[in-house]
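Recall the central idea of this unit: under ordinary conditions, the amino acid sequence of a chain determines the structure it adopts. In this exercise we apply that idea directly, starting from the sequence alone.
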Amino acid sequence: MKRILVILLVLVVLCLSAEGLYRCLFYQHDRHTFSAPLAQMVDSVNATGADILYLGESSNHTFGLDDTDTAWISEMVARHYPTLSVRNMTHDASHGEVYYLLLRNLSPDCPISTVVVTLNLRSFGIDWIASTLETVLQKRLVMLQPRPALLNRAILSFKAYDIKSTDERYQQMADYWDAHPLPGHPSVPRWGDSLNTDSTRMPGTFVRNYAFIIDTLDNVRIRDFDRIVRLAHERGWNLVFNLLAEDVEWAEQLVGPDLTTLMRQNADLLVDYYTRKGVTVVNNFDCLPDSLFRDRDWTTEHYLQAGRQTIADRVAKALRPFHPADYRP
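Accordingly, the structure predicted from this sequence is:
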């Protein structure tokens, strides 16, 4: 028994020494190599702090080719608070897990007053959860995970993170749809395919992206945003969720009320669920007409100038109770 205890003690000392050496010699290089550009954003905010920190994905920076004002949503919000420092951490295809790890990697001493997190309805559906973009994104997240740094490096070396082929991602979607049928409808793919025509497959795209029912008990994105709520409480941040606008008008035209009713129910659930947790939720779900959505080949939350401005104005007004003296119309 003594020999076993000695061996265990030696192993613990070796592991701690290896972890210390790795952090001193290689950690920052590997972090910036494998977690770029996420790690750079964290370091930049850590260096300066922010009065208001906005976290978003491509909806934040995407603009229309004919826009006279190409400012990001976060930049438009900043115009309402010219005396405050408004920073953003934006990465395409980001969802709740990305936002949580970005925020968790900020130093507890980093001076931040208010955090605005993009709440994208589509990200709660399996078509995004099992997106083919996830493998690249999950690789970038490994070095930000709350584990020993040397263990994270080993996970990268042995490719032990969530790495799946395109076929495996599609199978993950198919398995989910088989296990979660929608009352009164065939499977989600068959429902969408039945609406497609030779000229457009957009009805099926809308169905695949929005035909789901959020279960707060087992939805992975719910767990991610719940962790953000707890982290904000621990750090003393004011927390605002920015529920993005969806093209409800176009969905109604292409698919009909069966889908838009599901969309609205899920949006209402998110607003109610997080409002009851004390979060300020800006409900932009159906605030924009179809004419202010940029893309016609996918169900994106990419807006033309007036759309971005509308959302920014609504977010800025929601921030006013936290910064009343600094708000400008």
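The mean pLDDT is 95.
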